[in-house]
Each structure stands twice: as structure tokens, then as C-alpha cells.
Write a structure and sequence with these properties.
Blueprint: H1 9-46
Amino acid sequence: MSEPINMDASKMEERKRIIAGRNKALGLVLLGLVVLFFAITIAKMGH
């Protein structure tokens, strides 16, 4: 079942905080992959 639409303010703030943390973690993972692929590309060009 889905949650009710009218959540109180504290639950909304908690949810926003959790989502923001998840977004930051995902951003760091993506940035790490970009750096990894860049490093692999540079290493293969020098080989």
C-alpha cells in the first residue's frame, strides 16, 4: 500500500534528508566511475 499523502512536517523533512543523502552517495559513485574510466583510458593510451 502507498503512504498517505498528508504526512506531517517532521516525516517530510526526514524523507528529504534521506533522499538528499542517497543522491549524494549516488553522485559520488558516478564520479568515481568517471575517474576510474578516465584512468583506465590514460593507462591504455600509454601502453
